[in-house]
Amino acid sequence: MSTDRTKPEIDAPEGAAPAELVIRDIIVGDGTEAKPGDTVTVHYLGVEYDTGEEFDSSWSRGETIQFPLRGLIQGWQDGIPGMKVGGRRELVIPPHLAYGPAGGHFLGGKTLVFVIDLEQVG
């Protein structure tokens, strides 16, 4: 597992935010593969694409978080399946796959960047 890993750092993105989900494996895991609808245990860091400001991090709380993929934003539902335990993946998620247009959620209208470490499936 990735118990020896430390909180990732996200470099400020350059250029215009992508219109569609971008998936990039930083480390390819060799454990169980996540499938749509699975319950996953992850460590993650989230920043706003435009500012690079961190808005959420399980690392800052010092513990992983577990949840069913079905309960997450669409970008996670689409971006985590296929990832294997032990892997670290970056997702760049446009607003329509995150929290929708501006005005509702405080992250509405924003493109988000997440770095996710998959710790466990099931």
Automatic annotation (TrEMBL):
All residue ranges annotated as the PPIase FKBP-type domain in the record: 37-122
UniProt xrefs under Pfam families: FKBP_C (PF00254)
Reactions performed catalytically: [protein]-peptidylproline (omega=180) = [protein]-peptidylproline (omega=0)
Assigned EC number: 5.2.1.8
SUPFAM superfamilies documented for this protein: FKBP-like
Keyword set, alphabetical order: Isomerase, Rotamase
Source organism superkingdom: Bacteria
Top-rank EC class of the record's enzyme: isomerase
Keyword NADP: no
InterPro entries the UniProt entry points to: PPIase_dom_sf, PPIase_FKBP_dom
Keyword Isomerase attached: yes
Gene Ontology MF term list: peptidyl-prolyl cis-trans isomerase activity
Protein family according to the UniProt entry: Belongs to the FKBP-type PPIase family.
Protein name (database record): Peptidyl-prolyl cis-trans isomerase
